[in-house]
Amino acid sequence: MKRVKISLEDLPDDLLKEAVKVIKRGGVIVYPTDTVY
């Protein structure tokens, strides 16, 4: 499991792309903890 802490105010493009990859692999983005799994 990969855990990446993010901030909604400061979301780099590379981190956003990584989040999209996680979603496509069937991963889950959990809010409001702003943690990408």
TrEMBL record:
Residues 1-37 form the SAM-dependent MTase RsmB/NOP-type domain. GO terms for molecular function: methyltransferase activity. This is Threonylcarbamoyl-AMP synthase. InterPro entries: DHBP_synth_RibB-like_a/b_dom, MeTrfase_RsmB-F_NOP2_dom. It comes from Thermoproteota archaeon.
